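step=encode ok
step=design start
structure_in=
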């Protein structure tokens, strides 16, 4: 019985090690795909600010023109930062807040149905952006990012002095 447990443990450890090598490529794919999506959405909003401002005004948001420009810029620049993995956790936090605000202001029914009707929550437009932002906020950008490259270079400079 001990040999069976030892073999199972050895198999499990090897499996975990192998699957762990997928973490950084997976985070890269998440960042690239959703970063691109956010960037293109933000870019489209920036080039259609009057319509975005009208929509924000219909939601009763304060200073709809300023808010439209601010949100559009956050999404466009945040998407770029997310994609390249620069200032990733801060960007993840800002985008998480942005997506929660999208739920609160534009799709409150989906947000409040998170328990009673989860499908309504995860089918809402902000969901996948929120999920991607939370992944990067919590797990970081992975090894294939500018954050990691900069950190590595700073560590090398610090160690050489």
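sequence_out=
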């Amino acid at each position: 019985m001990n040999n069976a447990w030892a073999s199972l443990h050895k198999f499990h450890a090897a499996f975990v090690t192998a699957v762990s090598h997928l973490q950084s490529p997976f985070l890269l794919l998440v960042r690239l795909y959703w970063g691109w999506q956010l960037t293109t959405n933000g870019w489209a909003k920036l080039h259609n600010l009057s319509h975005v401002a009208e929509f924000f005004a219909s939601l009763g948001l304060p200073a709809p023109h300023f808010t439209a420009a601010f949100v559009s810029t956050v999404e466009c620049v945040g998407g770029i930062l997310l994609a390249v993995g620069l200032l990733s956790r801060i960007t993840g936090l800002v985008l998480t807040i942005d997506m929660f605000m999208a739920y609160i202001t534009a799709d409150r029914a989906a947000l409040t149905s998170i328990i009673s009707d989860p499908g309504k929550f995860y089918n809402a437009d902000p969901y996948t952006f929120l999920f991607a932002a939370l992944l990067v906020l919590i797990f970081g950008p992975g090894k294939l990012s500018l954050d990691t490259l900069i950190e590595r270079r700073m560590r090398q400079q610090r160690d050489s002095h």
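step=design ok
step=annotate ok -> The mean pLDDT is 96.
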